[in-house]
């Protein structure tokens, strides 16, 4: 709950600056191009000071004031130099004329932004970097790119491994809120230390540090400047538009009323808390214990890619604070198995999905869905899959072994059916003679029959 608020003369300037405090930003849609032909925005009047009451709040101790709107907190930490060119104007126009896009992404962002901003401030980094997932994924942790990048911060597999993001059959930490945010900020810090310039660091995040280094050396050899805008002509279109897109979002968040953008405020408080999980647990069970829908649970815990959450004490689950309390209370009285899944390793071609379904008293559809096995494919020998626990072991709390979690693989091949293969063997001379004799006899019989029919 908020304490009673008041505006002082010292804060009057701040109040006007944050009058249009905003909340959740943008939802997933097609990215703007540099030549968008969208309808242009119409500037709106600046909000009146009567709407400023919720911007600052007096704290219980002392005379310090704290912003209650998270977007005001982000604006107060802007530190990357601005750019102002036609690309920025095009992207501002694209975002400002798509309120549905803003609303959808805002709903996603409201879960994660407090954590991202807090981590940026801990590291002393510019807070507008918290807006980068708008550009990367529209704050969708389930987002995938054509280059196999995944998650809110869009890590490709190789870069994810470089920053210790686990990627196995059960977990993809490129999607995890805590893990991917830590990796992204660490990577951005590394790039800034390399180039000494946040705009070049951002370009390298998108294009790769090696490419940016080559572009710098090329301009240096020609005696040309090496700032982002001077290098942009050497960059691919995506990178050339990357920093202007972030600048466009930054401009809108900085003064949404100027661009006729209306966004509800998002409270400057944590959305989720972290709890420990000490044994395997079905995703559906975890959601039920927390009294959340499965979709909402997955929105906070997108790194779990199978219906069971494996791992021991190192595995964390994110839940809204109130739901965390419900989780613990319901867990204490839970009288059923926490996990209904175990693993099975495919020994050979005879273990078809249909046969496995019969063996484990389920359906082929359940096995395919649990293991993300597409239709018209079958399992190769050596694959490890999830199967339901048998009745005798359903009540067992035996977890999936750690070495299985870390090393399991799923290999698939096209299912061409069970047509019999023609087996060809080499015949002996005697067999060849008998085959020729039989063929000659059949030929003579056929001729005799034709003569009889013709007579």
From TrEMBL:
Give the signal peptide as a residue range, or say none if absent: 1-29
Q: Which UniProt keywords apply?
A: Signal
- Any Gene Ontology biological process: peptidoglycan metabolic process
Q: Where are the coiled-coil regions?
A: none
Recall the GO molecular function terms of this protein's record.
peptidoglycan lytic transglycosylase activity
Query: Mind telling me which InterPro entries this protein's record contains?
Result: LysM (IPR018392), LysM_dom_sf (IPR036779), Lysozyme-like_dom_sf (IPR023346), Transglyc_AS (IPR000189), Transglycosylase_SLT_dom_1 (IPR008258)
Q: Name one GO cellular component term.
A: membrane
The segment(s) forming the LysM domain are: 342-387
One Pfam family hit: SLT
- Annotated family: Belongs to the transglycosylase Slt family.
The protein in question is named LysM peptidoglycan-binding domain-containing protein
């Amino acid at each position: 709950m908020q304490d009673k608020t008041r505006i002082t003369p010292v804060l009057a300037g701040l109040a006007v600056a944050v009058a249009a405090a905003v909340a959740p930003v943008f939802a997933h849609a097609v990215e703007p191009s540099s030549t968008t032909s969208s309808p242009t925005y119409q500037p709106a009047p600046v909000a009146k000071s009567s709407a400023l009451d919720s911007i600052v709040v007096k704290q219980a101790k002392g005379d310090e004031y704290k912003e209650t709107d998270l977007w005001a907190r982000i604006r107060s930490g802007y530190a990357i130099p601005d750019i102002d060119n036609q690309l920025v104007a095009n992207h501002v126009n694209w975002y400002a004329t798509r309120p549905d896009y803003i609303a959808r992404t805002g709903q996603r962002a409201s879960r994660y932004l407090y954590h991202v901003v807090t981590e940026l401030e801990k590291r002393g980094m510019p807070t507008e970097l918290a807006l980068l997932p708008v550009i990367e994924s529209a704050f969708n942790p389930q987002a995938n790119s054509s280059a196999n990048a995944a998650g809110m911060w869009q890590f490709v597999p190789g870069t994810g491994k470089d920053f210790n993001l686990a990627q196995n059959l059960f977990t993809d930490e490129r999607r995890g809120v805590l893990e991917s945010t830590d990796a992204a900020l660490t990577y951005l810090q590394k790039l800034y230390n390399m180039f000494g310039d946040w705009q070049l660091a951002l370009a390298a995040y998108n294009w790769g540090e090696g490419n940016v280094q080559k572009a710098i050396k090329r301009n240096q050899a020609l005696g040309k400047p090496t700032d982002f805008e001077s290098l942009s002509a050497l960059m691919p279109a995506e990178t050339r538009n990357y920093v202007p897109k972030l600048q466009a979002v930054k401009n809108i968040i900085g003064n949404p009323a100027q661009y006729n953008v209306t966004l509800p405020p998002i409270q400057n408080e944590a959305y989720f808390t972290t709890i420990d999980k000490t044994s395997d647990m079905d995703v559906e069970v975890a959601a039920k214990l927390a009294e959340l829908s499965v979709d909402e649970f997955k929105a906070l815990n997108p790194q779990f890619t199978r219906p069971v959450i494996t791992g021991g004490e190192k595995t964390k689950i994110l839940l809204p604070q109130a739901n965390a309390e419900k989780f613990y209370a319901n867990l204490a009285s839970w009288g059923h198995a926490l996990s209904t899944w175990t693993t099975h390793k495919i020994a050979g071609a005879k273990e078809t999905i249909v046969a496995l379904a019969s063996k484990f008293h389920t359906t082929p559809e359940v096995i395919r869905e649990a293991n993300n096995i597409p239709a018209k494919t079958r399992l190769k020998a050596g694959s490890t899959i999830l199967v339901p626990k048998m009745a005798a072991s359903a009540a067992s709390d035996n977890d999936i072994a750690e070495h299985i979690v870390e090393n399991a693989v799923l290999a698939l091949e096209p299912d061409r059916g069970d047509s019999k293969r023609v087996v060809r063997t080499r015949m002996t001379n005697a067999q060849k003679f008998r085959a020729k004799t039989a063929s000659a006899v059949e030929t003579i019989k056929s001729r005799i029959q034709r003569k009889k029919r013709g007579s």
